[in-house]
Give the backbone structure.
Amino acid sequence: MSAAATATPAVAKKKAFGGVGRARELGILAALLLVIIAATVKNPNFLFSTDGWRDLLLTPSILVLVAVGQAIVIITRNVDLSVGSVMGLTAYLTGRLFIDAPGIPIIVVVIAAVLFGAVLGLINGALVAFAKVPAIVITLGTLYAYRGINVLWTGSDRINPSDMPREFLGLGTQQVLTIPVLTIVAVFVLAIAAWYMRNTRGGREYYAIGSDPDAAQLYGLKVTRRVLSAFILSGALAGLAGVFYAARYGSISSQAGSGWELDAVGAAVIGGIAIMGGVGSVWGAAIGAMLLMTINRALPILGIPDFWQRAVVGVLIIGAIVLDRVLAVRQKRRLIEARDDS
Amino acid sequence: MSDDVPPGGAAVGAALELHRVVKSFGPVVALRSGSLRLRSGSIHALIGENGAGKSTMVKIMAGLYRRDSGDFRLRGEEVDFTSTAQSKAAGIAVIYQEPTLFPDLSITENIFMGRQPVNRFGRIDRRAMRVEVGRIFQRLGVALDPDRITDGLSIADQQIIEIAKAISLDASVLIMDEPTAALSGVEVERLFSVARSLRDEGRAILFISHRFDEVFDLCDTVTVMRDGAYVATTPIAETTVDDLVRQMVGRDVTELFPKQDAVIGEPLLEVSGLTSPGVFHDISFTVRSGEIVALAGLVGAGRSEVVRAVFGVDAYREGEVRMLGTAVAPGRPSAAMQAGLALVPEDRRRQGLVIDAAVGGNITLAIRRRLARWGLITTGIENRAARVWASRLEVKTHALDSVAGTLSGGNQQKVVLAKWLATDPKVLIIDEPTRGIDVGTKAEVHRLLSQLAGEGMGILMISSELPEVLGMADRVLVMREGRITAEIDRSDATSENVMFAATHSSEAAA
């Protein structure tokens, strides 16, 4: 009896410490399932139709890519507000390449767009890391600057589906075993990012830097280089998202991707990434992205007027932050109590 | 002063050697001439008052600062670290006074961050890390869950993690900057046995401490520093506490801290049963008119937290603060100010001053409302009011328009003092009044505090410098781990009983 009594709290404690992060992701996953079930009950086609199933997977795929990059940046206690503009630029670049270099292999276009996105991310990262200006200011600046370049480049022109090869546009809708290609790519990228963030020195250093930048300096971590690489990654993923955007939607104006930065930050925060860095996982951010996009599609089906849809997203974001705060305070109190007991 | 370098001739066999190292920050010279020689298989003590330059020297060895001039040799070879990573790679591990851990990461990750064992594919080998932590914790006799995050750990436990880090680094030089400051007796013993076994493995250990008993107990050689310069290195067997104190202080202690006798009057500030869970517990004390009360204790004992709560910066859960018999509303600095309290905080640059603003504006900051004419305030009005206090405190600046950040530490402190004195407080709370201030200005600050007490002000002074506490205070309150463990009158206070109360629980002290 006494042995059991002493063993139980220790086990419970361990679960509490190790499990907080995972519980957070399971919670958001449960919310996602709830939304899907509710919408499906109301209209079975939401899930059980070819289009419904495809849209469910396809719609969030592009945002998942951007949200993964955003999550990594936020984990380092920074933020990248320029991802929407980077997407717009790379989407336009994609169309431009097909028009100006007919017959160019698709893979070359993809690589070019990813590299271009990475360069734009490098500019963000260099400004943040070397100029020591907060990321929110720098990337707010580049949000407008990149968009300005886009407008200058595009003018009143726009890329139309007919400007791009059919095989490329096919990427946007093609499926393998009923699963869209874009989704497969997004999940693949997500899985690699999650593995990297969890299992490598580089990944753990992102967390360390976000958890306490001063301590990271004292540990001798290469903070500047790491922060730079996070922004490059975010830019590159936004670049890939730009290509997908072109393939999926076909028509690209100078405003392509605008507003996506907020969806990406929202997805990360809903998914449990702490806005002050150091906590969260890219899985969470991806589920957050899926929830965000799925809710947008489910609300009309559930008969909620347009007007309220944005408000629901807002409530979701604020709710997620309040929840994280409450969990953090409770955990801190529990840790202190555990310490005082011992 | 005997020599200005450690004895022993050439640097043969020295694990680490500093020779006449100089470091300044702008006009402030932090280290005038630092010299030190560590041998392998030896525990070397470095002692000196606060501001003697010990921490600057540690930071140079850690690769955090770069020296301006002088020699720095590691195993006979000249080195010049530009980053902490280089210092670490060269086998120097530093345990700082205040642990620097990542609060959101697990203990294991904290120990291995930046140098985790990895397999061929770059995957972190978690099992190897866990085995290693288990081994180290067993050796240290620690029962912490390696998977818990470090947020919420006690300072003692955080310190242990720092030591585990150094052990796993297999450092050949281990620098401990006041590691025992927040440890209990048992924890100190554990640390010492670890330090001894590390010494026996042939490592060089530098041990910085304010506690003489620890220095004599643990170390075999001792180097004394004063005012940014090397004073002497002596084998521990050939020296005494009195000798070391003389070398450290180099002057008569009582002369420097002149508390004049003042008429001690009625109680002004009464604090009873103040409690904030996990921070401080059941804090009660009184400050009377004309009295200087010192709040002594080690770093992390919760002293600053108590005065922040008294002044209304932080909230507290239980207890009461009364000024002149009237309760002061909790959690509101404005209410505390109205009641006649003033708080000169510990961190001048961040909390005490608007560092980029002019001196005049800083001095009048707390009385702007009173100075304003028709709701407006001009530099002229500010400077007129500021001049009074600037001249009384002899703030050395050519103009009240100079930016506060350009002043020396001592003059900055005077500006902060002037700001609060301008509000005409009845009780002045001052957190570390002379930290990082040169000796001359220190004496001025002390004279001023003593004068203010003489005029009937009550003063509550937090200080980590024992001579200051013993010289200035009419009464000494000692805190340890969030509780007041002793209240000692001026006549009874000695460095021994204050230190004892700061490091032992009240039951043991009684």
Residues 61 and 285 of chain A are 12 Å apart (CA to CA).
